[in-house]
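so my prof wants the structure for this chain in the tokens format not the other one, which i didnt know existed until like an hour ago. anyway here's the sequence
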Amino acid sequence: MVIFLTIFFILFFAFFYNYDEKGPVLSGQIEKFVFSKKETNYSNIFWYDLKGNEIKLNEQRGKIVLINFWASWCLPCIRELPSIDKLSAGLDNREFKSIVINIDKRNRENSIRMFEDLDLHNLEYFYDSAGYLTSLLKIDVIPTTIIYNKNGDEIGRLVGEANWNSKDVLRFLKFFLE
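here's what i got, hopefully its the right format
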């Protein structure tokens, strides 16, 4: 009987205890997140704003940066943009920055209109010119979201749609913000 109880408690804590002293817990909306296996610091990551200005990831040093790749023809992408907007509103912009990058290769005006119609107050429209970033970062599926630490190293990525304004995501991000 003692052996049975011991095994029961070990299994109980192994499956239901949701805490990891070494890192953030991947649960709920963030459980599909995959940590990068090696340090990947790209000094050549850049994208463009509406005026055609080149914006570099290095300009965000000192912040946790969430970069989301989306397209106007991708319904899951469009559905998750408002949650990224709400996440951005709830975090200190001195410590955290959300960047959403459109990858449409044709009809940029249509994607800009769609973005504006979403009435996002905490996000700017950025784009990837000619697929440079998607190729460099090996983005095969959208939406894909990559999170970078304060030094510009890739923490990891989540492929697919998520509710970025969920408690799971906030708990996950706060681990890196502290």
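also thought this was worth mentioning. The longest strand covers residues 64-70.
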